[in-house]
Amino acid sequence: MANLESLAAAERAFAAETVKVGFRDGFIKYFADDGIGFGPHPERTREKLLKLPPVTGPRRLMFNWAPMFGDISAAGDLGYTTGPVLYTDLTDSSKPPRHGLYFSVWQKQSDGSWKVVVDLGVDTPEAVAPVETKFTAADAVRRAGNAVPGTDDYRKLDWDFWGSIAKTSPSKAYQSLLDKQFRIHRKGIMPITDRKDIPPSAIRQTKFDFIDGKIASSNDLAFTYGRYTTVNEPSGPESGYYVHVWRRDGSGRWKLAVDVQNPLPRSAN
Questions:
Q1: Residue 178 has pLDDT above 70, yes or no
Q2: Sign of dihedral through CA atoms 203, 66, 11, 116?
Q3: Which of 50, 52, 180, 187 is 20 to 30 A from 33, alpha carbon to alpha carbon?
Q4: Is the Cβ–Cβ distance between 82 and 67 less than 8 Å?
Q5: Do 111 and 218 sit in the same domain of this protein?
Q6: Final residue of a domain: which of 137, 167, 194?
Q7: What is the dihedral of CA 49, 53, 54, 55, to 10 degrees?
Q8: φ and ψ at 127, to 5 degrees?
Q9: 237 part of a folded domain
Q10: Can you give the pLDDT at residue 152?
Q11: Same domain, 56 and 133
Q12: Residue-level pLDDT at 226
């Protein structure tokens, strides 16, 4: 797990750098050239920030975070971490901090460094853990020698997921696809990691429109992202963006390890 520890160390260094120098310069340093953030629509974060002038004067907001959970491919070239975020208003010490949950996928670069390739967080009603929290690695998957075929197209996974939801139900589709260790992140609620605790509001009738993604060279871990739209909602459809992480199980089947959704503001749809 040395590669995963190095990834967690990169995440901690990213947070420390951002606390020190601010959002713009911290994110420029640690995002890949093609790294995607959501503001609120998908954008190349580093490219956008490089066009902005350096911040002068006192900072108004500081946010700090730490990795509490993560996983990595067998090849050690693609992985993710997630954990608590603390937003502190530096202009008014009487304001209580806001809490969130970050989620970042990292890819190892040709020079051996780790860079963020996609990042999508959600707000939470309270702290999911202290920012000094201990990091925990996902359980290793024991696979048979022929359990990782080389022909599956990970870019079809979201399409098949949507089809399964439409044909059966959100509950049945999720229960059949969720990995043994999974995470569901939704705005305004605490992370869901237990099948018994999945509220109906978190897994609705949803259409996924794939945009892009990446796969590990070992073909056992991949992420996809795109736009989601809920359907048949009494209050009308909700639209936003999602990130999925897919992991091969012991028999080589793709399973949903992470599902993050963040809705767009009504004015940004």
A1: yes
A2: positive
A3: 187
A4: yes
A5: no
A6: 137
A7: -100
A8: -65, 130
A9: yes
A10: 65
A11: yes
A12: 98
CATH, residue 12: 3.10.450.50
**In whole angstroms, what separates CA 252 from the centre of its chain?**
22
Spell 4-22 as b/e; 16+ CB within 10 A means b: bebbbebbbebbebbeebe
The rounded distance, in Å, linking the Cα atoms of 242 and 38 is 10
Cα torsion 25, 30, 35, 37: sign: negative
Q: Looking at the 3D structure of the chain, how many domains does it have?
A: 2
* Average pLDDT in the chain: 93
Indicate if 119 and 174 belong to the same structural domain.
Answer: no
Per-residue burial over 53-81, b = 16 or more CB atoms within 10 Å of its CB, e = otherwise: eeeeeeeeebbebbbbbbbbbbebbbbbb
Residues 167 and 133 in one domain: no
The residue type found at 105 is V
Residue 147 half-sphere exposure, CB side, CA atoms within 13 Å? 15
* 172: DSSP letter: H
Asked if the structure places residue 208 within a domain, the reply is yes
